[in-house]
Write a structure and sequence with these properties.
Helix content is 34%, strand content 24%. A hairpin with a 4-residue loop joins β6 and β7. The protein is an alpha+beta fold. The longest helix is centred in the C-terminal third of the chain and has 22 residues. The chain contains 12 helices and 14 strands. Bound molecules: flavin-adenine dinucleotide.
Length: 293
């Protein structure tokens, strides 16, 4: 059932990266809510595991002096939903965290595992795309920091090089300060269901005009994505129902939706047009703008 030959539990990141360098076949396990399901079902027949659960500093969520937010890869969704720094600075990520799984899953599932499994449906991903998050990846030899958009290569495929561990998710002050946001997860059930579509919208408004709009989508293509055309159009436009309607239409242009047993391509495109407007309406209010009917 769980065919594990070797199991390592390092307590420091240096120890962990050294073990990965020495045993390149090791599979990282964080909360295990993906890895163990795959092992149980036989999708992963055998694995040697490197648990990172004991590397406590990876759980840290902090706001640095310059306003940069840092979320450790081992932070669980329960932790993110309750963290005062997240609630005060990027409440849209709290919304995404609370939409994920059920309480038991949120207690163990980590944000790092949510990103590294490469799923387009990952509930944190569209919000992290909208926030221009960057990922810090560490090896024995050093580290690199890349935009989250560059990390996703295809369905279930991420740019995690041999020996690398995702340690931190970093959000710069200019990417979240003075923004309001909102996340909508559309799924067939209210809880314990994978998104049919996930939409995260954030915006900054001045004198009734959009200074910036960013829309991240999940399950609208093989990877999470941003709605570049809609975002470019929105900049400098008056906040109005007409502007929102155009943003909704343009958002569909960035999608590469497909038909699956959950929903048809056409239905997903309809959801993108409608839900990007609904998410943005709430984001406008959260950014201090006037409510649109
Ligand atoms: C019942 C159930 C309901 C679920 N509902 C949802 C849902 O609503 N929304 C949703 O988005 N997901 C859902 N999931 C999927 C899963 O819980 C999440 O993707 C979760 O965030 C994975 O995190 P984890 O820590 O458990 O990852 P793990 O299973 O430990 O790891 C997942 C993958 O990431 C790699 N990995 C983990 N951490 C790191 C790291 N720091 N550096 C490098 N690689 C790493 C692992 O090697 C593995 O390939 C659900 C799962 C279950 C079982």
């Amino acid at each position: 059932m769980y065919n594990v030959d070797q199991y390592f539990e390092p307590e420091t990141i240096d120890e962990a990266t050294a073990l990965l360098a020495e045993h390149p076949n090791l599979l990282i396990i964080a909360g295990g809510t993906d890895v163990l399901i795959k092992m149980h079902s036989g999708k992963i027949a055998q694995a040697d595991l490197l648990s990172i659960r004991k590397i406590k500093f990876l759980e840290t969520i902090q706001k640095r002096q310059d306003g940069t937010l840092s979320i450790g890869s081992l932070a669980t969704f329960t932790q993110i939903a309750n963290d005062p720094i997240i609630k005060e600075n990027i409440p849209v990520l709290k919304e995404a965290a609370l939409s994920m799984g059920g309480p038991q899953i949120r207690n163990v599932a980590t944000i790092g595992g949510n990103i590294c499994n490469g799923a387009t449906s990952a509930d944190s991903a569209s919000t992290l795309f909208a926030l221009n998050a960057k990922l810090k990846l560490q090896t024995q030899g050093g580290e690199r920091v890349i935009p989250i958009e560059d990390f996703y290569l295809g369905p279930g495929k991420v740019d995690l090089k041999p020996g690398e561990i995702l340690t931190e998710i970093v959000i710069s002050p200019e990417d979240y300060q003075d923004y309001g946001g909102h996340y909508i997860k559309f799924s067939m059930r209210k809880a314990m269901d994978i998104a049919t579509l996930g939409v995260s919208a954030i915006c900054r408004i001045k004198n009734g005009v959009f200074e910036d709009v960013r829309i991240g989508l999940g399950v609208a293509g093989p990877t999470p994505l941003r709605c570049q055309e809609a975002e470019s159009f929105a900049k400098g436009k008056t906040v109005s129902a007409q502007t929102l309607a155009e943003i909704g239409k343009l958002a569909v242009k960035s999608t590469k939706a497909r038909t699956s047993w959950r929903a048809s391509k056409e239905y997903r495109e309809h959801l993108v047009e409608e839900l990007s407007q609904r998410a943005l309406k709430v984001a406008i209010k959260n950014a201090g703008g006037e409510s649109l009917a």
